[in-house]
Structure formats: structure tokens, C-alpha cells
Amino acid sequence: MRAATVLVTGANGEIGHGLLTRLAADGRSIVTLDIAPLEPQLAKLVRREFTGSITDLGLLERILSEFEIDLVFHLAALLSTRSEFTPMSAHQVNVEGTLHLLEFAHYEGLSHGRPVVFMYPSSIAAYGLPDIETKNRAKRVREDEWNTPTTMYGCNKLYCEHLGRYYTRHYKQLAAEPAGHVDFRCVRFPGLISALTTPSGGTSDYAPEMIHAAAKGEPYSCFVRKDTRIPFMVMPDAIDALLLLAAAPRARLTRTAYNLAAFSPTADEICEVVTRAFPRASMTWNTDEKRQRIVDSWPAEVDDSAARRDWGFSPRYDFDHAFNDYLIPTITERYKS
Ligand code: SER
């Protein structure tokens, strides 16, 4: 019998870094698929590494034939700023790639006779508030409000949430073969901040970029206004959330996509805490109007009560704790070495 294995796509990315370490520590057998070769310290943790695109059907067929995958973390995506520059590629990777992975999960589940849990990171980009006045008036936004994204990435994420729901509940409903081989579960992540890696191509990148630049002693020019407020979360809480939702009893889940929240600082509040920690930091403000419009369409705060109620989501880090006990000490240590 083949050993149950976890597939992580986009494993070389920011979430992948933290996730592989945790899965390996839990003794899971891991297979990865990423467009770039894994960094050596990650490669050591996995049973097999595939280098290639999630749109390569031949590659997915090879994985299907060689491994019994019972859990998928489908992390590969082009982020929001990058996707605005290359919308066709974004659609290809973010939507067609996800469709291929869902199809892959269906046939994995069919071949070993139980549903494959399919974890999908959606995003606050799935929301689209029409203007800053509406954003300022909106309370903590709930999952079914303002589902009118303004970016290609947001449209891709929202549609893939629906694809996941469809594969879980309705796929092949007219066909003779038994249904229900995919168990799709999704979180809408806020902006994520890791002490170990920096993102690329996102619009919430100003926060991690500001912190890492300050720690490295490099000047930083922030591309959003000081009063910009969106939700953020640190990477350890993001990884905990993915693992907790993956392990939750299916019967407890009342939604396909769950909001997650931890803290919602303004860009200026982040700058203050960073310059307190790294007094030699040099920050300037130079708004990129186009990227500003994107963050202005994202909610300032989201309501995560469904995640708390259904599967016990409870982030460990609030704003102070995130900076004082995780980001600042870990980043300082990282650049020292
Ligand atoms: N962090 C992502 C981005 O900025 C949003 O999910 O694109």
C-alpha cells in the first residue's frame, strides 16, 4: 500500500516555507510542486520535489500515478500587483492551475476511495469596496458582503472559491461515477508578514518590505498613504490556521471560505513600531495611486467569527505581540547572521 502523502504547490513561496517545516515536524510525507527548485533547507524535508508548472497536465498525471495524496495545500499563485500587469498569465496560473489541481484531487480521491482535503488560500482581495468612503463606513466585513473584487487576482480567488465548492458538492452530478472526492476548505488570508521571507508581487507587501528594509538598514519608500488600513497576520498564525482547518471535522464546517483576522494597523502605525525598533531606519512616503486604489478597495477589518466558531481559529499574535515577540526579534537575528 502507498503511504498517504501531502502535496504542496507553490512550496517555495512564503507560506510554503513555514508550512513545509511544520508538516515535516509532524512526520508527514510531503511531495512538492513549484516552478523553481526548492531551497536546499526545504528540499531536505520532502520526499519528492517536482519542478514545473501547475498547468503542466503531464506532471500532475505523474504525481497521480506515483503518490496517494490525501491532502493538498494549493499555494501556487501570482499575487495581486503582478496579476494586474499580466492578467492573462494570472488567469492561467490562478484559475486554470486551480482547476487542474481540483481535477487532480478528484481523481486521487476516486482512486483511493476517500475525499482529498483540498486547502486553498483565498484572500481579502476577494472583496472590493467601491471607494474609500464606503471602506471607512463599513464595519467588520463578513464573508458574503462586498464580493465585487477590483483586481484580476481577486476575481481569480473568488471564482476559485466557487470552483472548490462546486467540486466538493456538485461535480459530475449527472455522471454515473460516485461524487464527493474533493473536500475543499478555504481561508481568506489578510496580508501576511513573515520574519523569514519577503513576498513579491503583492499589494500588501508594503508592511513586510518596510520591516525587512529597516532591519537590513536599507531606506524604504512606502507606496501607500500613511492612513492605509488593511488586516494583517503573522506567518505562524497563518500556518496554524491552515493546519487547524485541514484537521477540522467536516461536519463542523458551515462555509466554504472563512475570513481570518488578527490585527489591522495603519501603514503609519507599522512605520512607528518599526522605527522605534530600528531607530536608524529611513522611511519616506511616495504613494503609487494604482496600488493605493487596490488597498483602498480591501476592507479595513473583517469578521472572523465563523472561523472561530466552526473550527476554533484563535490567532496567537495581536499587533504588539506580533512585533515585539515574533517579527522584531526574529528578523533582527536573521540579518545579524
Ligand atoms: N497579499 C496578497 C497581495 O497583496 C493579498 O492576498 O496580493
Short descriptors:
337 residues; alpha/beta; Rossmann fold; UDP-galactose 4-epimerase, domain 1; 2 domains; seven-stranded parallel beta sheet; two-stranded parallel sheet; globular; binds serine
Structure in words:
With 337 residues, the chain is α/β, with parallel strands linked by helices. The protein is built from 13 helices and eleven strands. It has two domains: 4-191 and 233-259, Rossmann fold, CATH 3.40.50.720; 193-232 and 263-301 and 318-336, UDP-galactose 4-epimerase, domain 1, CATH 3.90.25. The protein has a seven-stranded parallel β-sheet, sandwiched between helices. It has a two-stranded parallel sheet with strand order 7-9. Helix 1 crosses helix 9 (235-247). The longest helix has 26 residues, at 87-112. Residues 79-80, 123, 125, 153, 189, 191, 202-204 line the site of serine.
| Corresponding CATH architecture of the largest domain | 3-Layer(aba) Sandwich
Helix content range? 40-55%
Count of discrete structural domains? 2
Total E-strand runs? 11
Integer average pLDDT: 96
Low-confidence stretches: none
* SS-based class: alpha/beta
